Amino acid sequence: MKYLKLFPIIFFFILSYFLFWKITNIQNTKELQSVLLNQDLPNLKLEYVTGKFTLNNLLGKKAFIINFFASWCAPCRVEHAVLQKYSKDHIIIGVAYKDDINSVKKFLKDLGNPYDILMLDLNGRAAIDLGLYGVPETYFINNKGKIKYRQVGPLTVKKFQNIIKSLKVN
Amino acid sequence: MLAEFGFIFLVFAFVLSVIHLIVSTKVCFINFSEINFYILRKINFSICLFLILSFLFLIISYVLSDFSVLNIYNNSHTNKPILYKISGTWGNHEGSLLMWLAFLGVYGFFLTLFTRNNNKKFTSKVFFTSNIVNIGFIGFTIFTSNPFLRISPIPDEGNGLNPVLQDPGLAFHPPLLYLGYVGLTIPFAYSVAALLEGKIDRRWANEIRPWILISWIFLTLGITLGSFWAYYELGWGGWWFWDPVENVSLLPWLLLTALLHSNRVTEKRDNLKSWTILLSIIAFSLTLLGTFIVRSGLLTSVHAFASDPARGIYILSFLFLITAASLILYVIKYDKIENDEKLNILSKEGGLLLNNVFLCASTVTILLGTLWPLFVEVMTGKDISVGAPYFNLVFLPIIMPAIFVSGIIININWKRNTVEHLLKKLYKAIIILVFLVTIILFLLDGPIIFFAGIILSTWLLISIVNDFYEKIRIKKSISGVKLGKAISIPFSTYGMYLAHLGLAVFILGVAISDSKKVYFEGVMKEQEIVKVDRFNIQLKKIIEKKEKNWISETGAFNVVGFKENIKMFAERRLYLDTGMPSTEAAIFRNFFSHLYIVMGQEQPLNSGQRIVRIYYNPFIILIWSGAFLMAFGGLISICDKKRNR
Asked: Cβ–Cβ of B320/A78 closer than 8 Å?
């Protein structure tokens, strides 16, 4: 009976261990979820709006980034600055998801255009092929045309650097 | 500008809390001086003021639809009615956290106000603890969830609020629940202060009693309203789903109920002291755990509106530090506060202890069931979920004896009793119970759980009446009563009667509606008729309607079976901007019973058939009315001026 007073704290420590384990592992699983990882980029049905080259020009030759966004999505606005910052060093393809062309143009006029190619996914067909969670979502494709990384949710400068770093190591 | 002011107030509050921490550390542990104590009170009032102002400024920004604030842009829309503009403030993570802070402010204000004449040394320790909670939450808001962030360029229109949340139920469910959660901060602060002081007495228990009751009332109301909201808005036909987030609101409620009773023993008999302290610490931790689970998206649930692991880490660390520190303190000071006085089991305090054991055991089983998927995942990597069958199986057998025992406790005296004495007092009640139960058994038919529920609620009712009768009975007379005696019974006893009556009504509602409900689930065409219980329900036609931002289908149902034939309309809306469906159940109330119709999507497509679910829920209203009665009983208790009998 004397040691009964220790019971709550012991119970609590065990519980905390599980909670901490889970919370630190949530993030890891989130980043590796895509079944498409290391697979070829599926053939996407998209409408071209503007671009220096087409998707087929790039595929299998150069590494690039596909960014799904929408003018109606608030986190995309926040993320946009990050893309702007890296648009010089990377080829970024923007796919406007369920959006209309005029709003997209206004969006890019207001915030700047980081995209080398701009495409439209009006009915969300390409998004289904990729299994999109929602916008913003970003895919990193290597120069062999394989999907190497999938980012769900907005990119930050720190995240972007980490992803690029980890992709270079591999 | 408003948003900047709101944020500045928040920063002021944070800085003041840090100053408070320094001053209160000095006052509590180095040297006490009355001047510093008055400074602490002043700082307390200022923190409260800033927190409340900050929240008000966010509400005003919402009302003015200032979309330059990211949070408002994400959660509001100019076309919304004013009620939802205001309630949108706490319909999201950042805003609800600011509401939490504002409530900390409100409670802090009253705490400071009411402790004016209390023991200053002790009170400064209470301030010290509650201020640490303030720092944790203000820091959490400022560093991880600032609701006043701006965006640029300023959007013309906001994203709107989740349609499921656009409901009067949501407007009041979270504030009430939060008032309950936040209120627990004060019993917690008092307990830690008592541990630091190494002294706890009846006066202490008397001082925390109103705070426990207030939280208990708000928590009861909050959970009830949430359950009612889920019932008619989510369209699942039930009132409780053992969803993780529902569970984490029930856990502190159960412990708070236990605390309410154990504190009574401490107040009256100067006993169960360390137990009362432990309960208030754990009940408070459970509210933090609840916030953590909701805010981190740790367990999948209907409340996953706002989730982010980074925030989860912060809350979890805060939860860990504050609970571990208090529990370690508890271990150290345990021997100092506990007087090893033995309890006589055959007495009110013994009964209350027994009841506490039942309540805590049920809390542990629910906690285990809620977190079990997590344990399994950590150990084996498998994904499992624990559903209603587990909870019904383990929770009911533990809580039922608790309810039965409470009927006896109402009648038993403090201190020493003998079995003969108890039987003498209770034998009439037992005879009436046996008599009524026999009649019920003959007349009605149903599963065991139905009878168990009916027996329990009858028993509670009889024991309340019996106790009241014993109190107004003229001693040494066989059946004479003197109604004048009823006036001398304290208010808090009437509150207790009413709360337990509410419990009886609640159990009756659960027993009848759960075992006597009739439901139909299937597809229906236009003109088709189904029979549910005694009702013939025909889907007359489907009315389609198109608005600017939603399309809706409304099923018009003709119901034959009540005294008059009635029409019911079950609506299903699809919001075009988000693609989110929302259902509005058609509910027809007949006395205490509900006929409940939900119409779902077309299945298969273009067949003209709709998925329809029809429930007949007899006496279901008793569930929520019982819960409201319980809260009302608590309110009456709190109004008792002669608390210290």
From this structure: no
pLDDT tens for each residue of B527-582: 888 888 888 899 888 888 887 767 888 989 999 988 888 899 988 887 766 666 77
- Interface predicted TM-score (ipTM) of this complex, two decimals: 0.83
Domain ranges of chain A: 2-31, 47-169
Predicted confidence (pLDDT) at residue B299 exceeds the cutoff of 70: no
Residue B644 lies in a domain: no
Residue B416 has pLDDT above 80, yes or no: no
pTM summary value: 0.81
What is the average pLDDT score of chain B?
87
Instruction: Tell me the C-alpha to C-alpha distance, in Å, between residue B255 and each of A14, B178, B286, B363.
Output: 20, 16, 9, 7
B110 Cβ contact partners less than 8 Å away, ≥ 6 residues apart: none
pLDDT for res B474: 79
Q: Tell me: do B89 and B5 sit in the same domain.
A: yes
* A1 at B interface, C-beta within 8 A: no
Same domain, B377 and B481: no
> What CATH class is the domain A47-169?
alpha beta
Same-domain status, B194 and B309: yes
Residue B101 has, within 13 A of its CA and on its CB side, a CA count of 36
Nearest to A16 among B313, B320, B377 (CB): B320
Chain B residues inside the 8 Å CB shell of A21 = 378
CB-closest option in A5, A9, A23 to B312: A23
Strand partners, B163: none
Q: Which of B116, B133, B166 is the last residue of a domain?
A: B166
Domain with B30, as residue range(s), is 1-166
* CB atoms closer than 10 angstroms to residue B232: 19
Residues A139-166 pLDDT 10s: 888 888 888 888 877 888 878 888 888 7
